[in-house]
Amino acid sequence: MSTIGQGTWMEHVGKTHGAEDHDHDLIQDLSKRLDALWRYDQYIANAEGKPKLQECWSHLKDQEQKNIHTLKALIAEEIKQGCF
Fold this sequence. Notes:
mainly alpha, single chain
């Protein structure tokens, strides 16, 4: 633990940040969705012989691609507005 007095060691955490909270939220969520997206092909392969499962994973993959597109468009708009 720091030598700073107890109760104050986190006093300054978060004072410096590189983006507004709403922009950070967009980037954070995009990152999570990108991580999930690349897994769907493996999930589809793992469900070989289970067409209902493969259909489900394919549907979720399609939804995720749309979500990612939406987030990218929102981020682009934020950039145009000078928010980044």
